[in-house]
Amino acid sequence: MTSVKPLVFLCLCLIPAFHSFLNYKKSHEWTKLILTHHWPHTFCTMEKTSCQTADQFNYWTLHGFWPNKGGMCNHSWHFNVTNIEGLLPDMQRYWPDLLHPNSTLLWKHEWVKHGTCAAYLESINTQYKYFAKSLEMYKEINLDNTLLKFNIVPSEKTYSLKEIREAILNYYQVAPKIQCVLPSQGEQVQLLGQIEICVDKQFQYTNCSEPAEDLPDSDIDIPAFELTAAAELHVCDESIAVLYPPVSTKLWRLS
Questions:
Q1: Following DSSP, what letter does each residue of 32-78 receive, concatenated?
Q2: Nearest to 166 by CA among 179, 157, 175
Q3: Residue 98: per-residue pLDDT
Q4: Which residues of this protein are catalytic (predicted)?
Q5: Rounded to whole angstroms, what are the CA distances from 31 to 21, 79, 109, 206, 231?
Q6: Which of 151-160, 168-177, 204-213 has the lowest mean pLDDT?
Q7: Does residue 225 register a pLDDT over 60?
Q8: For residue range 110-150, what is the model confidence (pLDDT) as tens digits?
Q9: Are residues 68 and 30 in contact, defined by beta-carbon separation less than 8 angstroms?
Q10: 203 — alpha (psi -120 to 50), left (phi > 0) or beta?
Q11: Rounded distance, CA 36 to CA 141, Å?
Q12: Which phi and psi angles does 166 have, rounded to 5°?
């Protein structure tokens, strides 16, 4: 006859592990995906070393497609570029690594940190499906054309943050999150740097944040090799003019 005591002991030992699993699962549950665009010229301006690729891109490029909660959900699920071989022309065009041309470092980071968490959703539960859906949403949103419809274009003139936000709000009917490089001492403008547009688990547009959530120190995701740039991006200041810099403008801030 099997002794009851060892079974009871085993059950008691499993309880903490079960609670740990539930806590882990809860900490990685997400409700929306954040399609993040960055303006290449501003991104390269933030770098303390020359970012030679900026002039090759006169359009918003993809930074990432991030669940709004969780990160590094499966360390053993390594990125393999051969899994997305059919997507490479679009990846190189719309999701380039601005600091390391022809490298897969950025894609690897985005998959390991964000894709492995997004993969809890069946429709994006492989590397191919995750990156393909990211590209699909990027093309559907078509941020460059949307801003152009409202006469917001890269220019030497400045815009108010309200103009940019309302253009996106009016077109997509949801609130974006807009991030800038705030002015250094003596400067009068902030540089438009990153725009986030969010979707729910059905890939329907949803608010990225409510006004009360737009705190100055927003949580910016950048790979370790881009930490210098990350430190400079903040939710744009409502009271400061916004420069959406054209590619030809020389704004290098080398110090």
A1: EEEEEEE-HHHHHHH-SS--TTGGG--S-EEEEEEESS-----TTS-
A2: 175
A3: 87
A4: 63, 110, 114
A5: 19, 24, 21, 10, 26
A6: 204-213
A7: no
A8: 999 999 999 999 999 999 999 999 999 999 999 999 999 99
A9: yes
A10: left
A11: 11
A12: -70, -30
Alpha-carbon span 79 to 97, nearest angstrom: 16
Q: Which amino acid, 228?
A: T
Cα 129-134-137 angle, rounded to 5 deg: 120
Tokens of 187: 């400067």
Q: Is 203 helix (H, G, I), strand (E, B) or coil?
A: coil
245 Cβ neighbours under 8 A, 6+ residues apart: 39, 41, 42, 45, 154, 191, 192, 251
Which residues are catalytic, by number?
63, 110, 114
Place of tokens 């690594």: 97
Residues 199 and 100: their CA atoms lie apart, in Å, by: 29
The pLDDT value recorded for residue 249 is: 53
**φ, ψ (nearest 5 deg) of residue 180:** -135, 165
Angle at 158 between CA 144 and CA 239, to 5 degrees: 110
DSSP for 94-136 reads HS--SSSTT--HHHHHHIIIIIHHHTTSGGG-SHHHHHHHHHH
Is the separation of the CB atoms in 197 and 141 below 8 Å? yes
Write the single-letter amino acid at 53. Answer: T
Asked if residues 244 and 153 have their Cβ atoms less than 8 Å apart, the reply is yes
